[in-house]
Specification:
DUF2892 domain-containing protein; transmembrane; elongated; 6 helices; membrane; transmembrane helix; two-stranded antiparallel ribbon
Length: about 110
């Protein structure tokens, strides 16, 4: 993954709303094809813009939105480690997932 977060949204509800609009527009374009004809295909660009390109781009953005600010990758001398950020370890120590907790304890290489 690159250093910048490309597909993530500013919040989870906003990302889920974009997904509902995007997938709804894509499905609606094909479902309404028999009812209103080729004019329903005008919903396709709306769906693609809402999903930021494709359904996979939206799914990648969902993962990035969920993990934003929780994990950081640090590479020193060619060895990379995945760590939980300092602000989340103090605030969310009780709510960290087992995978995140294991990554914190073991400093798993990537």
């Amino acid at each position: 993954m690159s250093d910048g977060i490309v597909f993530a949204s500013s919040s989870l509800p906003r990302h889920l709303a974009r997904g509902a609009i995007g997938f709804g527009s894509l499905v609606g374009a094909f479902v309404l094809l028999s009812a209103i004809g080729p004019a329903s295909l005008l919903l396709l660009p709306i769906g693609l813009v809402a999903l930021r390109g494709c359904p996979m781009c939206w799914a990648l953005g969902l993962v990035q939105t969920l993990s934003r600010g929780r994990l950081e990758r640090e590479c020193v001398d060619g060895v990379c480690e995945l760590r939980v950020t300092d602000r989340n370890t103090a605030e969310n120590a009780a709510s960290t997932s087992p995978v995140t907790a294991a990554a914190e304890r073991e400093h798993l290489p990537i």
